[in-house]
């Protein structure tokens, strides 16, 4: 299943994660800032319609979190992505519940260093 890649707008090198998150939020529809383990993150959610020409065989709801790695020497980021396939004629409340579950899981995210 193909999906559009995240395109990070150009920012000045070493401008910091806050600048990158702000730039990414400016080009990501319905993006919102969330905090994960005291780290600012960007969350987006969208409906992706089925489009065989684009390689998307089944409609789905996609949620993504874009998270900077704290104190990384060169700015590094993690992306967490969740997709719930949408069956024709199904109840949207079911997908809302799945998204809430993913958000709850992401709310338990903690950084651990070995």
Structure description:
With 114 residues, the protein is of the alpha+beta class. The protein contains two helices and four strands. The chain has a four-stranded antiparallel sheet with strand order 1-2-3-4, with helices on both faces. Strand 3 and strand 4 form a beta hairpin. The mean pLDDT is 85.
Stretches where pLDDT is under 50 for at least 5 consecutive residues are: none
Distance between the termini: 35 Å
Task: Please state roughly what percent of the residues sit in beta strands, choosing from under 5%, 5-15%, 15-25%, 25-35%, 35-45% or over 45%.
Answer: 25-35%
CA-based shape: globular
Average pLDDT for all residues? 85
Instruction: Give me the Rg, rounded.
Output: 16 Å
Order of helices and strands: HEEEEH
Which strand order spans the largest sheet, edge to edge or round the barrel?
1-2-3-4
Structural classification: alpha+beta
What's a concise summary of this model?
The chain is of the alpha+beta class. It has helices at 17-27, 92-107, and strands spanning 32-36, 39-48, 60-68, 77-85.
